[in-house]
Amino acid sequence: MPGTPPTRFVYLGPEGTFAEQALRTVPAAERGTRTPARSVGEALDSVRVGEADAALVPLENSIGGAVGVTLDEMAEGEPLVITREVVLPVEFVLGARPGTTLDDIRSVAAHPQASTQCRNWLRGHLPDAVVVDVLSNGAAAGGVASGEYDAAVCAPIGAARHRLAVLADKIADHPDAVTRFALVSRPGPPPPPTGDDLTSLAVYIAHDRVGALLSVLMELAVRGVNLTRIESRPTGEALGRYVFFLDCTGHVADVRLGEALQGLRRVCADVRFLGSYPRHRFSGAAGDRPVPAPAGLSDADYADAAAWLARLRAGAQP
Amino acid sequence: MPGTPPTRFVYLGPEGTFAEQALRTVPAAERGTRTPARSVGEALDSVRVGEADAALVPLENSIGGAVGVTLDEMAEGEPLVITREVVLPVEFVLGARPGTTLDDIRSVAAHPQASTQCRNWLRGHLPDAVVVDVLSNGAAAGGVASGEYDAAVCAPIGAARHRLAVLADKIADHPDAVTRFALVSRPGPPPPPTGDDLTSLAVYIAHDRVGALLSVLMELAVRGVNLTRIESRPTGEALGRYVFFLDCTGHVADVRLGEALQGLRRVCADVRFLGSYPRHRFSGAAGDRPVPAPAGLSDADYADAAAWLARLRAGAQP
Amino acid sequence: MPGTPPTRFVYLGPEGTFAEQALRTVPAAERGTRTPARSVGEALDSVRVGEADAALVPLENSIGGAVGVTLDEMAEGEPLVITREVVLPVEFVLGARPGTTLDDIRSVAAHPQASTQCRNWLRGHLPDAVVVDVLSNGAAAGGVASGEYDAAVCAPIGAARHRLAVLADKIADHPDAVTRFALVSRPGPPPPPTGDDLTSLAVYIAHDRVGALLSVLMELAVRGVNLTRIESRPTGEALGRYVFFLDCTGHVADVRLGEALQGLRRVCADVRFLGSYPRHRFSGAAGDRPVPAPAGLSDADYADAAAWLARLRAGAQP
Amino acid sequence: MPGTPPTRFVYLGPEGTFAEQALRTVPAAERGTRTPARSVGEALDSVRVGEADAALVPLENSIGGAVGVTLDEMAEGEPLVITREVVLPVEFVLGARPGTTLDDIRSVAAHPQASTQCRNWLRGHLPDAVVVDVLSNGAAAGGVASGEYDAAVCAPIGAARHRLAVLADKIADHPDAVTRFALVSRPGPPPPPTGDDLTSLAVYIAHDRVGALLSVLMELAVRGVNLTRIESRPTGEALGRYVFFLDCTGHVADVRLGEALQGLRRVCADVRFLGSYPRHRFSGAAGDRPVPAPAGLSDADYADAAAWLARLRAGAQP
Question: Residues of the signal sequence (chains A, B, C, D) (predicted)?
Fold first, then answer.
């Protein structure tokens, strides 16, 4: 039922990973049900078939290499839309059973990309420990709890869930790294504009020519729409057809973004709208401030120009 | 009274020049009054104050160096709009009193730019004749009729009006040269779109930067609007402020030109609309064919994109 | 002989016009011969055939509507180059025989464009005088000296040459209007760069498409080259082939302008180089300051980038 | 030693995955040593420290979610360059111990992204089997060989290495999907141009503005350089600073790509060159044909334009 807040949530599992931690920052999810899914595709399909109301899946950067999968899954099949983004600092911790000290650690369980992100720390503090690949951050914590490994590189929530002691926190080599997640639903009226929104698109162009991409960017630039992300992927169907995933500043309800969207619709082979949603704001933190509309591109400027055109068409100058 | 066809016409005089010849290709002018004006400014002002309904003045290329004057006069003062363009081949003739032969000719009267355009012919056929500057093509013909000069470089209409014999025709060095005239009225509903129209604009940008002009062209290019002419002029008021005179394909009533106009209105310091009018068609001749809307830029494409956007905003995905 | 300073000068006559006044601001011309020519074409041809070393002709704005003629004459025939620009304030005066007062004036001789530029003044101060068209500002002054007219709208130099009293000065409606002249020679090494130069070009593109003009502007923009003037003209040869006259900031010896010129050479149907020369500086006056090279576009930046590329090609990182 | 062909190869392990299969298409690798690495970072570091001569790692699309990791590892630390790309069809097979039939299969081991890519096939042919996540395609095959699972989704090389029978081949949902790998070495002279090369770059811009990205694309477009891939990633260091990974047509030794690279060097915060290498050609297959240089952008056109500029600077027209 449109307008009904979601109550049944799925997320990319297993339990105890960053995805679960991200979901728990969503107030409605705290009150609703939260079910792990085995894959991004499974999570999204459960929304498509109506078994869940919303899915929390990773979009960018990240711990599971899931970016490409999420984009591909969003671009194909029944349409879905992003209604919210959640940006989490990547705060890896070293978890171990209570009583363990660094000197005791002979084996460290970690997802391969987690150990990659903490490589310098592991080399410096545990040069002699064996790093064992496991399938997820949650599985790493679980394997320590069950006694299979001495320590785990995992998310804080994974350590907490498996009652591990945190021997060290913020062990990632880049202290400012973040992971970006999306909350995804079936199509419906987008959340209202906040003045600081993002819109995600999948844009298909027939050829991989710089001219074609220039055309796309010009459609955005002349309306003062900024890109915050662009990623090209070959479509699975055939070589030589490309899809670009774009994140733009603005909301589908904004006049200038609406005009830009219409422009893309006209010049591209296809455009799939992937949602308008508030940009994630870090509480108290610095970072990207919302960018005000450039001179001449506010909704008021659009209204003024439309009124002027109407006068011209009626023959009333100026 | 809006919608009343014009009956009182002025044109850049004197009588017997290309401007009168151009005016006589306008059917309504054949039935109305036709009064010569002493200057472009005088012709336009007589329309502004209501003494005339329409003025025929030169726009481009041409015999009187009047282009800049016309543009400046259109860009300042009370707004006026072009309702029709007339493109005349520049067909200079050599006129003389009946009975004169080439060998008799010792003096040739010509407007300086007319003699310039016929320089090769004059050198080849009348190497020993003295070319005397006069103020207009009409004055050249008149001076021959009164016996002041032996021959005149003039328009066919000038020879006819002064009952001169045409000793040679098409004597201009470039046989395809044309002059372009505009029929100008007070603002009113533009003539209806024909599918092959032009729109003239005066566009002010604050600085002479290539970036500013690029912005203007991008506003046009993303809507598939072509330029057929561009001319920059420093504004009389101060150095460093430029006005661009643009002729674009399309009609103010077209969706895509309307969107482009709104874009210019927003990004430019000022835009003055100078009229939408049918492009001149040469009967039977080759030349610039009308350019169909590029893929994705027809009115139907605009309507489709607008409907798509409306569905997105309503939350209904296709 | 290349390098020899010019000593024989021609200018667009007749004597006593702004062109002569402009020429006399050129030091070498003060020491050389100064001959009036009957037309821009005649002035340029006398340089082409070697009868003169340099010609002073009007380029822009201006009193004789000669702009188009000059451009066309420069774009065709044997190549010529601009070596200097002269920008003169348009300071019209009202000249009369000594002893005449405003109340005595019944007839005013003026070139049509001169009377146009002083229209408001004439209406306000001589509402009842008849304005008589003459062929040049110099002819207006001469006609007053000979007693044919009571007063003349002319250049200060015209009043002085014909010993007229100046009844009023600065009578043009736009006090800041200027006329721009070019000093033109046969091709030779350009004057050395001064750090504040202009380069003039005639650029041919095959079609009047906005895309083609966009390509031209992009070649300039990516090298940070600014336009100070652009004018399109249909070529006399045929419809649908356009030539653009561009004035750009920079000197042909500058690295970035050189790269831009090569780019134009590659993408345009044809490019004719019309000269690099110092920008006119108004003594003490405000106006357009020279624009420093944008970030990354100085000659030093070009040298750095070239060295970096050489290292890459040699396989030496970074 | 520069120029010495590589003999010691590493690849993203474990054994029996697509990366090993890709490496074996490289002739030198067939004759040299081939060592699996536990991660992309480990593979690249072994080249950086000189323990290996070249590393084969996944770049795009792909089975391990490793794209982002490879890009990040290439963009940081000691510079490395790509010397060759290998594009492999993603040909998943279902492997089982000899004698097994489809009806016998209760459990299928698969890397999560492999099972995602074969989802439709698995639903259609093994709707009741349990899919068990494992860490790699090689591990899936190994787990079947050891009797832990009934069947594996794996690469043909994985089935062969573990002596599994192939019960079904080409089971991926998109039959044309490919994975793209890079062979990476320490910096040295690039492989010679072949006329159909790619160049990879990491380009840093200060802000995520569409204007900044437009500037980058314009540097490429004016030199006729096409993009075949673009991907933006936030840099790990801080929010708001972006790195774009670009694959361009052309070779660093080409004149026009060289000019484009210099342009990027000047306008971007930083550019890291990631190698020029022959584009992968599918034997006999259709696909992207090499794109000839656009009109005016061949090396010969560049040489012509440079000679023309030299003539202009010397004062010798035309």
Answer: none
